[in-house]
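Reposting from the mailing list since nobody answered there.

I have sequence plus structure tokens for a pair of proteins and want to know whether others read the tokens the same way I do. The first protein:
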Amino acid sequence: MKRSLLVLLLVGLVGCSSTPTTNDETKNWSAQKIYSEAKSMLNSGSYEKSIKLFETLEARYPYGRYAQQAQLEVAYAYYKDNEPVSAVAACDRFIKLHPNHPNVDYAYYLKGLANFTEDQSLFARIADQDMTERDPRSASSSFESFRELSTRFPDSKYTPDAIARMKYLVDALAWHEVHVAQYYYKRGAYVAAANRAQYALIHYPQAPANELGLAIMVRSYDAMGTNDLRDDALRVLQKNFPTSKYVSGNFDRKKPWWRFWEL
């Protein structure tokens, strides 16, 4: 019985030792070869495979221009593979390791793009989503990356697009604040509504959302009985948005026309 068990054990050990190991076809590849294959995978849309190869390249050849370029390319691969968190992390790592690299401006731009893509539907979702539940951190992070790019590298070829996206993001962030103010107003939290609308007005003074924000301030101050603040907000609204639907209508001495606004 013992002999039979020993034979089975030996057979099992032989079987395990003869199990074929995974063949790594990149084992003897040069840094240039791995980079070339990874780049080809990236261009063909095989993002996961390209990421694996770029990471293999950096692990196997951690020094030199191919490793540096691989760090930047892997960030782009993550971005294209709809992995914005990994893309941002890769960009941050590249910026930290190579702050004076000739292409560090692209790292800032790509970081902004990754966060921008994650939050680009902010406007589209306004009608479908309660904006108090919308986390604006991606938009804020994207704005900061684009701002740093445009400040540090004003002559970069990526700066004009970054500035255009910054304008969009300012509008998006302003709309977020104003819709939160609207949420508070509709629930009778007039102090919170007025403060949130005022925050948008101060931090995003040129944003179109301030038309609604000022209207919320007027109605909130009126509801609280702070008539001076109400009249000040109304004057600002009338001056900056003279054709607004919130500054036109039939005046009623008993009930001012602006009280008919639907917020």
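The second protein, same order (residues first, tokens after):
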Amino acid sequence: MTSRPDGALGERETEHAPVSGGARIALLALCVVGVALFTGLGVWQVKRLFWKLDLIARVEARIHADPVAAPTPEAFAAEAASEAEYRRVGLSGHFLNDRETLVQAVTELGGGFWVLTPFVTTRGFIVLVNRGFVPPEKRAPESRAAGTIEGPTSLTGLLRLSEPGGGFLRRNDPGHERWYSRDVAAISAARGLDGGAGYFVDADRAAGMAGFPAGGLTVTRFSNNHLVYALTWFALAVMSAVGAYLVWRKRAR
């Protein structure tokens, strides 16, 4: 009869060492917290899913509708922003081309700038109009003189809400003419505009208009992965619940 080495016996005893009651309770608590946390995240994603579906439906209905008169500043302030966003509107008046603002942009045409130009309407108020995209080599107005619109004109476009503050991790710096978002209030203040509307308009691409600025580039396609995210969180909640049950059953034994 041969005896086993002490080392092998020690390893086997270690492998089958019972888990303490305190460790089981901690593991059970962790699983319960996981169930609550993952369920909450799943419910949140379901809410986001319905919000996104409603947004897509509203945008689709509005971008294909006939244009209506752009709201006055007073009318815009009195209605819910969700009811005005992406509405197709029409404007008549003239541009203040010497007060344009370039806002950094990334579009399907590449990186460059949005050209936001104040537009004085025939109704007496001012709207910032995003005339469209220009690449870096066209940022100077003289490099795109053919696209400058002088005198009375009319346009259509989509009403957009102000983007205050700046872009991701980059704040607008009016003093150095660095703009990362279309912040209506800040741009209006920097350009000395009074009586401006609290929104801006993404102009459509004018018929027969070639060159820059290139309008009509508003993104109206929205990613919608919330259902996948919700199912993932709920699956993790179920796994945590199963883990909690197994720990509780073992503790009860």
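Reply #1 (J.P.):
I read it the same way you do. The radius of gyration is 29 Å.
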